Amino acid sequence: MFDTLTDRLGGIFDTLTGRGALSEKDVDAALREIRVALLEADVALPVVKSVTKQIRERAIGEDVIRAVAPGQQVVKIVHDALVDLLGGDGAPEGLYLEGEPPIAILMAGLQGSGKTTTAAKLAKRITEQHKKKVLLASLDTRRPAAMEQLQQLAIQIDVAFLPIVPGQKAVDIAKRAMSAGRLQGFDVVILDTAGRTSIDEEMMGEAKAIADIAHPHETLLVADALTGQDAVNTAAKFHERLPLTGLVLTRMDGDGRGGAALSMRHVTGLPIKFLGVSEKPDGLDAFDARRVAGRILG
Ligand code: GDP
């Protein structure tokens, strides 16, 4: 186990006594430890650089009571800066579901990121918390197993599922889902797009064509928090091609420190809306910047 950042910073400030403002020298010594802690938490290097610069600006001149654990006070400064960088500690940005029904939510992401599981989790959440009638549809025409997986999940959580028509193209399924949504009085249609092992032109073209049909209110990128830097690169590439509205980070119940969250937010500027915290259908938490900041700091 690594020492916590508080312990490390405690060591640096142990020799200081009295009360005073943090000098550049104090802050720079602390920043070396902060930089290591962020890198160990899997925050990407360019993001670490930018974040530590902001922390430096905030910390210099800050008043600390040196007799009383100044290390902890500096950790608080860092913690607050991370919370701001993760989107602040207000209520998390929820889903935008207002407007003429049916409202489409498009799920995008690489294969294995947890996209299908998250589609089902969202369907359950919207049904229960927003009291809306939800239709789930799988557009993963290349992997019949993925379609069946979503169907099974829909049965498990008791949410409607658009019947599978073998051989139909993804854009045609999207059209069918939206028209079923309209005709059958659904409020929300969740479209689970095909996941691939890597981003390719065909995948992006297809996702774009689906978006043109469904005019989604939300286009959510699902990414695996444990893949760290890869998840960040994926998010950046998707966001170049598809107008994403938010991110969902899965496997936050794993033993990663969650630095990918900070990197993704920083690189894409998109809000992280939810965190996947288990394999179960209710394992989806609203994003909480404070909790994630605490975890990054260890
Ligand atoms: P997809 O290929 O992106 O659709 O990925 P799946 O939804 O099939 O998920 C892949 C695996 O990850 C499955 O075994 C899921 O149960 C699991 N999974 C998804 N989200 C989470 C999560 O938040 N935590 C954990 N522990 N497992 C998850």
TrEMBL record:
It is a peripheral membrane protein. GO terms for molecular function: 7S RNA binding; GTP binding; GTPase activity. It catalyses: GTP + H2O = GDP + phosphate + H(+). It is found in: Cell inner membrane; Cytoplasm. GTP binds at residues 109-116, 192-196, 250-253. The keyword Oxidoreductase does not apply. Residues 271-284 form the SRP54-type proteins GTP-binding domain. The keyword Hydrolase applies. GO terms for cellular component: plasma membrane; signal recognition particle. Its EC number is 3.6.5.4. Keywords: Cytoplasm, GTP-binding, Hydrolase, Nucleotide-binding, Ribonucleoprotein, RNA-binding, Signal recognition particle. GO terms for biological process: SRP-dependent cotranslational protein targeting to membrane. Part of the signal recognition particle protein translocation system, which is composed of SRP and FtsY. SRP is a ribonucleoprotein composed of Ffh and a 4.5S RNA molecule. Belongs to the GTP-binding SRP family. SRP54 subfamily. Composed of three domains: the N-terminal N domain, which is responsible for interactions with the ribosome, the central G domain, which binds GTP, and the C-terminal M domain, which binds the RNA and the signal sequence of the RNC. Involved in targeting and insertion of nascent membrane proteins into the cytoplasmic membrane. Binds to the hydrophobic signal sequence of the ribosome-nascent chain (RNC) as it emerges from the ribosomes. The SRP-RNC complex is then targeted to the cytoplasmic membrane where it interacts with the SRP receptor FtsY. Interaction with FtsY leads to the transfer of the RNC complex to the Sec translocase for insertion into the membrane, the hydrolysis of GTP by both Ffh and FtsY, and the dissociation of the SRP-FtsY complex into the individual components. This is Signal recognition particle protein. The lineage of its organism: Bacteria, Pseudomonadati, Pseudomonadota, Alphaproteobacteria, Maricaulales.
